[in-house]
Design a protein that fits this description.
The protein has helices at about 1-40, 50-80, 80-100, 105. The protein has one domain (about 1-105). It is an all-alpha fold and about 110 residues long.
């Protein structure tokens, strides 16, 4: 029972950690996007290969940091309800039985 209580209590902390991760990854994605765009703007027309490399680097940044940040943000918004639902129900059921005085160890007293 204590393990289930710890899991339910840690669920709230994990949501805020997911928000922190989302902010970090999306912030990194934005920072590298702005840095890449500034580099591309400063190139002249004869450095097309450098522009291609910067564009490819931006695509890699968006697909890694952007997607990971978006997934973390989605996990923050939706929470971990489906993963911890059995533990939450177990804690709620145990607390209700304790309030009613119907736990097996309380009946012997």
């Amino acid at each position: 029972m204590d393990k289930a209580r710890r899991i339910v209590a840690a669920q709230g902390k994990a949501r805020w950690i997911m928000l922190l991760y989302a902010a970090v990854f999306l912030g990194l994605s934005g920072f590298f996007t702005l840095a890449g765009i500034r580099r591309i703007e400063n190139l002249d027309g004869q450095h097309m290969t450098a522009g291609f490399v910067y564009g490819l680097a931006l695509a890699v940044v968006w697909t890694t940091f952007g997607v990971i940040g978006s997934l973390c943000l989605g996990k923050f918004v939706t929470g971990f309800g489906s993963e911890t639902r059995p533990q939450e129900l177990l804690v709620r059921y145990h607390d209700r039985l304790r309030d009613l005085g119907m736990l097996p160890d309380q009946q012997n007293r």
